[in-house]
Hints:
The complex is a heterodimer.
Chain A: H1 7-26, H2 38-65, E1 73-74, E2 78-85, E3 88-94, E4 97-98, H3 100-123, H4 130-149, H5 153-171, H6 186-215, H7 220-228, H8 234-251, H9 260-263, H10 269-278, H11 281-290, H12 292-296, H13 299-320, H14 326-346, H15 350-378, H16 389-392, H17 394-408, H18 414-429, H19 431-456, H20 504-519, H21 531-537, H22 553-574, H23 588-595, H24 600-642, H25 653-678
Antiparallel strand pairs in A: 1-4, 2-3
Chain B: H1 9-27, H2 35-52, E1 59-64, E2 67-72, H3 74-101, H4 105-124, H5 128-146, H6 153-184, H7 189-198, H8 205-222, H9 230-237, H10 240-265, H11 270-292, H12 298-319, H13 322-353, H14 364-367, H15 369-383, H16 389-403, H17 407-432, H18 446-464, H19 467-478
Helix pairs in contact in B: 1-2, 1-4, 2-3, 2-4, 3-4, 3-10, 3-13, 3-19, 4-5, 4-10, 5-6, 5-10, 6-8, 6-9, 8-11, 9-10, 9-12, 10-12, 10-13, 11-12, 11-17, 12-13, 12-16, 12-17, 13-15, 13-16, 13-18, 13-19, 15-17, 15-18, 16-17, 16-18
Amino acid sequence: xxxxxxxxxxxxxxxxxxxxxxxxxxxxxxxxxxxxxxxxxxxxxxxxxxxxxxxxxxxxxxxxxxxxxxxxxxxxxxxxxxxxxxxxxxxxxxxxxxxxxxxxxxxxxxxxxxxxxxxxxxxxxxxxxxxxxxxxxxxxxxxxxxxxxxxxxxxxxxxxxxxxxxxxxxxxxxxxxxxxxxxxxxxxxxxxxxxxxxxxxxxxxxxxxxxxxxxxxxxxxxxxxxxxxxxxxxxxxxxxxxxxxxxxxxxxxxxxxxxxxxxxxxxxxxxxxxxxxxxxxxxxxxxxxxxxxxxxxxxxxxxxxxxxxxxxxxxxxxxxxxxxxxxxxxxxxxxxxxxxxxxxxxxxxxxxxxxxxxxxxxxxxxxxxxxxxxxxxxxxxxxxxxxxxxxxxxxxxxxxxxxxxxxxxxxxxxxxxxxxxxxxxxxxxxxxxxxxxxxxxxxxxxxxxxxxxxxxxxxxxxxxxxxxxxxxxxxxxxxxxxxxxxxxxxxxxxxxxxxxxxxxxxxxxxxxxxxxxxxxxxxxxxxxxxxxxxxxxxxxxxxxxxxxxxxxxxxxxxxxxxxxxxxxxxxxxxxxxxxxxxxxxxxxxxxxxxxxxxxxxxxxxxxxxxxxxxxxxxxxxxxxxxxxxxxxxxxxxxxxxxxxxxxxxxxxxxxxxxxxxxxxxxxxxxxxxxxxxxx
Amino acid sequence: xxxxxxxxxxxxxxxxxxxxxxxxxxxxxxxxxxxxxxxxxxxxxxxxxxxxxxxxxxxxxxxxxxxxxxxxxxxxxxxxxxxxxxxxxxxxxxxxxxxxxxxxxxxxxxxxxxxxxxxxxxxxxxxxxxxxxxxxxxxxxxxxxxxxxxxxxxxxxxxxxxxxxxxxxxxxxxxxxxxxxxxxxxxxxxxxxxxxxxxxxxxxxxxxxxxxxxxxxxxxxxxxxxxxxxxxxxxxxxxxxxxxxxxxxxxxxxxxxxxxxxxxxxxxxxxxxxxxxxxxxxxxxxxxxxxxxxxxxxxxxxxxxxxxxxxxxxxxxxxxxxxxxxxxxxxxxxxxxxxxxxxxxxxxxxxxxxxxxxxxxxxxxxxxxxxxxxxxxxxxxxxxxxxxxxxxxxxxxxxxxxxxxxxxxxxxxxxxxxxxxxxxxxxxxxxxxxxxxxxxxxxxxxxxxxxxxxxxxxxxxxxxxxxxxxxxxxxxxxxxxxx
Lengths: 679, 483
């Protein structure tokens, strides 16, 4: 079973969720009364996803069984398009690249996607868009799988864009809902995610164009080889690497393009789990890892990745300290951890970065699904309204604490091992980056346990009345009934007297995810001789396969102690059931700065988009449009009101002004021409 | 030797059919007013099928022995088929519109056919005067069509403006042609190319000024900045299907002429005009997309969005390589399919609601989910998302520009393309997020439903399996560079 795998089986990993999306879309053609019931559609989707997951496991097994575990399994390329024009031959192939890195990503993506789909049966029960939701979820997973499997930049980029498109569809799933007080509306959040990540993609696309003209190939392996052998000038490699990183920074929410991610919390919570654990945000980290040899060839690019990663980790962690909304805490924690992964890649820790990506995927998916479960019980994400839930929701509580411990980096949970590896890599590369990473470790422990204490300890503070998730608590205005989301099912009653544990479909995925959250760190534990590391390193050329740094007791102990200190500090402040902690005068300005997200949203939306672009550039363009075009039209209308002869209009200013534009344009070109000719 | 008249059969079909449509309309006054459009659509279809028969024909039409004024080759065939296809869809979307809002249904449909005929002649012309006359034929048809809603002030105004400025640009164009003739002593493309490659090192100023005027004249026809000012007015004033035709037929034919003229006749002087077109391309794409952000009227939005698209297509003209040619032809087809889909949707909406304001699209997703979904498809394609036609066609244009040494221009194009996403999302938001102003669902008429469905499938087909069309475009473009 694990001896070999044919190419079609690997393609099936990708095609099964795609089929599920298409089948669900196709059933909309059937007249409404005889459509299959939504439950059977989600079951179908889950079964196909499970098939995909099993195939991913088999693929992983095959890759592990290879002569050199993790070695690349080559499949041929297939021609998709080709243009032969003169001496230029543009071939656009599609093909699979399968090695250790791919196999691990396949398993992580399919596993999390499967559990999220399973969980959504409970969370999304009764939603009128239930089938549509599963179609989007499947398409989202497909796009991510295509991105992971791609052996060439173009196929990768197409799926990359599709991931962005699907995130738009899913974050804005409850598009008709108005904004919660103090937050953006789902529709605006979706648009923001789409636009901001696409701003990064400008860099990515330019990088692809650049590398294509220099190497005339899209194939990732060939590009790696060319970069490694320095067959193109170094500054081209650096430009390419930085362009790609711009795209990665957009998707992986790196500073300063991270602002979309917290707002993306307005989407359904299982979607948040999927986006922030295994897909979308992981895509950026994966991309940098996939092109790791290119980055190794450019020191400047590596430095940029490391520094941006460190800044992101720090900035996001500080914002996580002050959020009131449970999902927002998790959102900033995700950004911070992504910064950690980028930092790891930037200091040369390919294994550490991917190792952390994998561990993080499991425990963060669990934390998000846990927060969804909490919301299911209390109808709110506001931690000030929770409290004491450990008595009412024991399973959610237990799994949430496991996830938090793992994220905080308490040994021997999985998060400890990967975080420790990142710290070690940073230590040998740059002490300043190491210090930043260590600070983040402390803050992480603090904000996670602040959340744990506020949510699960003390007395229950009443939750939110009304039937719906916090994210969708105000389910559209009355005129929008067709879009409203009666979250129905188990929590339809208008008032919850007391919170309650979620149904089996929701807690089972939590329990399952608890297992890897505890154990997955062991696959690269030092006393097992880093099998995971060897596996991942097979995906890069031999020269780049560094020996892992030895386990450093000093770092391990100091980071653990800091994590425990962070937890203790959180316990001191919040365990008593206090909600508002009096801040000293000294801390106040920081609180304001953090809770306003460093005023970055204000900077982008008010100053840059609103101020400079809207007030300045667009206004200028609009002014031009209004005075010359509309003004002319209005002028003509006014002028002709009294005039009966239609030809008189030829005498108005409008045609003359247009004519002036025409001649002016031509004259301008002649002028340019003289300037260049006289030079 | 007589010229080979059999080369022009598709043109004859269109001309005769146009006369036939008018005759039928005159002789049967009781005929329902949508019938001439359906009849004319058959004619366009027939001409399209006749054009297909010319695949791999490679022959010149010599008016006088030795003077090839038209050339039928794969480039011609590709564009003929495309133009006839566009005409079919324009006529189908016109039928109900004409019946409800216009008079003289026969003339309307006939002129659409004649405009297509003019476009086809523009594509195959290989001699300056012939191309110019073809261009004028197309333009005059459009002046008439834009002002066809006789009782609407705005339509009249748009038509008049368009004609006056069109005449003006023609004068510029013609003056440019005369300068070129003065320098090279010939009007055939081949002759000009030969004369240009034999000229000495010195830069002939008359020649370059000639290029400037020709670019200005053609820039007007394709609506490139700063020669675009008539576009929003014409788009807004014209009867809606004619707006669709302006954005497809007119652009496709003008670009086909543009590209053939500059890559066959003027190619030896590439260095002299490359920067001019590249500059115009950059300004056009940024200007079109930035001003589009401010629009509240759907037609004006599409006017500026099409100006932005013109900027992208000009990349190919500036690059003037074979793969730029195939990208251009490919993009034209993808753009035509997408735009026709969008406009058919707008026509359906307009037929029912009489409005083309973006604000009135509010809640379309509830009132007519099919239209909203199809519109989303078209808009995503225009924005260049993968899976939709627009991704690949644009990507190929950017690649070909970059390959031809216009890296900066492709870079600008990528940024402009990002901006465009923003205003397309505004329309989507209007359809999905905002509550409808007028409640109540409505149905799409069956025929137009089918037309939209076909076009939407086309958008996806080109996005997922572009190979067949790209191969065709490549073969077509290869003919211009066969030497």
